[in-house]
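Data availability (excerpt). The following record was deposited with the supplementary files.
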Amino acid sequence: MANAASGMAVEDNCKLKFLELKKRTHRFIIFRIDGQQVVVEKLGSPQETYEDFSASLPADECRYAVFDFDFTTNENCQKSKIFFIAWSPDSSRVRMKMVYASSKDRFKRELDGIQVELQATDPSEMSFDIIKSRAL
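Predicted structure:
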């Protein structure tokens, strides 16, 4: 296990599943902090949509997530970008928000290949339109 700067460990499975996502085995991964380590909470199959992904995030708890977003450019080229989303809803506990915020950068460095980062405190801050505009 790798140690995060905040003292948070990152379970090896997190990096393995992220490598699988890069190979198109998963559409998304949701991570949570469990005790003193970051663990995989949910894997989304390649058939799942962005709506499935956003519905998987809890309304009142923080999470980290990666989403493999497929899109077509203005030049009509098929592309894909991997988003890292730091989900920190306003309704979550202050201590939880602090732990997730202090561990985020170190955890993100463990996942080699993140192309776009997004911080969201409300579903409107990570709407499909925002994801699409950040990808182009």
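Summary of structural features: Helices lie at 12-22, 50-55, 94-110, 128-135.
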